[in-house]
Write a structure and sequence with these properties.
The protein is about 30% helix and about 20% strand. The protein is an alpha+beta fold. It has a 6-stranded antiparallel β-sheet, with helices on both faces. Strands 17-16-15-18-19 form a 5-stranded mixed β-sheet. Strands 2-1-4-5 form a 4-stranded mixed β-sheet, with no helix packed on it. Strand 4 and strand 5 form a beta hairpin.
Length: about 500
Amino acid sequence: VVYLFPVYEEKIKEGILVHRVRLVGNGKTHKPTTNTYAATASREEFLILMHLAAHHDYEIAHVDEKRAFLSADKTDPRPVYARLRGDGNFYSVLKALYGLKTSPADYQAKVIQRFKDMGYKRLGMCQCIFYKEENNGENKCLIYAYVDDFVFTGKCRDYVEEQIRTLMDTVDTTPAIWNEMTLLGMDIRRNRTKRTILITMSKKIKSLYESVFNEATNREIKRKGHPMPVGGYKVMDEDFKEDDPNSEFLDAKGIQEYMTLVGCLVWVMGIRFDCTFVITYFTWFTNKPRVHHLNMVLHCIQYLHTTAHIPLVMGGKGALEVLGYSDASLGTGPQRRSPLSQCIRIAPLAGCIHAKTTASTMAYPNIFEGELDSTFILFKSLARVNNEMHEFRSVGHSTKAFGDNLAVVDFIHGRGFPKGVRHMQLRMWYIREQYKAGLIDLDHMAGVILTADYLTKVADAEAHLKFALDIMGLMLLGLKSLVGSEQAVLDY
């Protein structure tokens, strides 16, 4: 037996604020016997799809299935009953009720079968993307399925419209929104002349900002030019002075606020790659955050609000190239671990489709090991992106990796073999095999222009602005500075 409780939502539908409520089952008391796994579409796959759509000038349309889960049957043979508090009746659950542990898997199975019946093939690498091709490739359509949100893209608008109508004949959906839309908290605009798509999270950032800077909190409001000051990066206990009130640990209420804000920032980080390192830094201290860490979170939110207009720019008319960058910083993470970073773009000036910073699993005794590990992780990510590009029927592109450690580049090229590094040979030979097979090229790039450089350290205001222009792809808009960029983005 599961109890039903109301969930209230506010959504913008066709420019109008809509309030709605749905009854959701409390899944804590649901004990299923069937599989509950449901694949989740990744942000990386979505960004690759947007880049290719912009580059090839494909049509894009978005539809949302109404009351989606309730269109799928409950497959678990064990009976489930639902109750409303204050109501003495028991109700038998027949459909994939919101809140049940099996509902996501039940609904996804229905979606997979639905698109299979429409003639689509499910991609192997990207299991939430479906592909269909007819007339020797003249007509083709890709569908990105994020639970009950479906993004259709293809070259021929008539063919894409036909696919959407076929879907609407079988399920109840919202009307199709073409080419510019709000999806998963992202605002999507495009310039078809320049073959670019601009993705922002301005509404999400504004909502987050207003939740922490208002009359109730009475916090000082300031404009910020970078996500965190250089002096704000503190990882060791000795970095905090005992008599400094900012060094005090947060109480239970403060920890709850910190965790909530960091969770929101992690979601925003999926588009705002210029804040990747700073937000990753916040996640390192979710166990025992201090007042200092909360202050830095608030600083980052003010920066995001100041620069909420900055888009991640996909596409462009240049040739497709999978370009990866990696870097490491020796012993500057918690417990003297080394931050390792990587980022990938699929055109020289476009924004990145992937950016990530992690702390190493061990403390490295020298920078060579950190740089080698970072390169090894990048090569695996590049192999994944290459496979995704091939599944999207994008072929003929080159793949290159860049790092700023010349010793590592020479090592992988076979121009040296340091002694006493037997434990690194597995990683080294994997990279060498990929390089010698011609699958991925590797070259040296100076740290001052390496995109991944400021994914391992905090930049000052001037350096951060240059980094943001690079990693967000703002140079595709012709921008050379963030000063006055808000009007330039609007005019673009």
